[in-house]
TrEMBL record:
This is 17 kDa surface antigen. Keywords: Signal. It comes from the Bacteria. Residues 1-22 form the signal peptide.
């Protein structure tokens, strides 16, 4: 039961700390914004930031969910950590793929 309390505490701490981390664009993404058509620059910047933010949020939620599932299933510490890592990877991919919707998909496809 100690592991369960520890995992829940860690998940809660991660959810509290996550909003404090600023999302910034990499040099590659800044170059992509600069290459975009002048009318699309704000949209491209927004979509790239949204993708990064949602990927980070998905990572945190996936890690917490995976670790929680590992604890509920009665796994050992190693199995719980492995479930948390798998959840983090899945959450990252899902969060990044769902960011911005169809409008962002069109804008980013138009401005490679």
């Amino acid at each position: 039961m100690k592991i369960a309390k520890w995992a829940v505490g860690l998940a809660a701490l991660t959810l509290m700390v996550e909003p404090a981390v600023a999302v910034t664009l990499s040099s590659k993404d800044r170059a992509r914004v600069a290459r975009a058509a002048p009318g699309d620059r704000d949209d491209v910047r927004y979509c790239l930031l949204k993708r990064k933010k949602d990927a980070r949020k998905g990572t945190v939620i996936g890690a917490a969910g995976g670790a929680g599932a590992g604890v509920i299933a009665g796994g050992s510490v190693g199995e719980t950590l492995l479930a948390g890592a798998a959840g983090a990877v899945a959450g990252n991919l899902i969060g990044k793929g769902q960011a911005g919707g169809d409008a962002c998909d069109r804008v980013l496809k138009r401005n490679p």
